[in-house]
Structure to design on (240 residues):
């Protein structure tokens, strides 16, 4: 077994349990490290299968997820090509079993929290709105100080779930807390590594959500929340 394959497949305390997740992370690692360059053609499925020591269906599943996440793109009759090169920091910040799991969590949240924001816009009581606005101000203070603000970000989303007055949204949001925090850890670290404008743009998304909730505009609140989470998902795999 060569060194690169060994490095990719060495399990951590929270190692991926699905082989396709291992291959997903392995290909992302090769791209982030520059072993597979931007716009370059990926090895064939059979070559990747041999390289990672797994079956072609496993490789095919991993490639499908990479296409969904916009990291690679297929060209008719030509194969798959690197479309985006994630920052190497994404790998260093990863604290969960798989980057693929982080992406799937963002997908789930985009639907769940969009619906929660819409319901919160209809159902909030004065104490709920105060909690949401307080959490927004705490996030603004983090941006001003240049702090990471993971706890403040999590509190913001939990305050919106609480404003639904629906125990199912509240309990699901809390049960997802470790997974949500893992994604926030990556995206908020990346924002701090970029320009101040990047952090301000993220905060503007939070403001748009709160303004729609305050106006009791469920459609816009839902749309703003969904866009915010999908943007966060996309920011994970921005090109460098």
């Amino acid at each position: 077994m060569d060194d690169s394959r060994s490095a990719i497949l060495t399990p951590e305390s929270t190692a991926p349990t699905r082989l396709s997740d291992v291959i997903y992370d392995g290909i992302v690692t090769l791209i982030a490290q520059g072993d597979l360059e931007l716009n370059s053609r990926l090895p064939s499925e059979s070559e990747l299968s041999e390289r990672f020591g797994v079956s072609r269906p496993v490789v095919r599943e991993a490639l499908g997820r990479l296409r969904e996440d916009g990291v690679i793109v297929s060209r008719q009759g030509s194969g798959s090509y690197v479309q985006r090169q994630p920052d190497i920091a994404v790998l260093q910040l990863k604290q969960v079993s798989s980057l693929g799991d982080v992406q799937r969590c963002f997908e789930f949240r985009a639907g769940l929290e969009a619906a929660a924001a819409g319901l919160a816009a209809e159902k909030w009581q004065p104490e709920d709105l105060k909690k949401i606005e307080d959490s927004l101000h705490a996030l603004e203070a983090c941006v001003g100080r240049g702090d990471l603000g993971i706890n403040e970000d999590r509190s913001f989303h939990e305050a919106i779930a609480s404003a639904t007055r629906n125990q199912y949204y509240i309990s699901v949001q809390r049960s997802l807390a470790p997974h949500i925090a893992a994604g926030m850890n990556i995206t908020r670290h990346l924002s701090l590594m970029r320009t101040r404008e990047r952090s301000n743009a993220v905060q503007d998304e939070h403001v748009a959500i709160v303004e729609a909730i305050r106006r009791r505009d469920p459609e816009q609140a839902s749309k703003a929340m969904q866009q915010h989470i999908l943007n966060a998902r996309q920011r994970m795999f921005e090109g460098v």
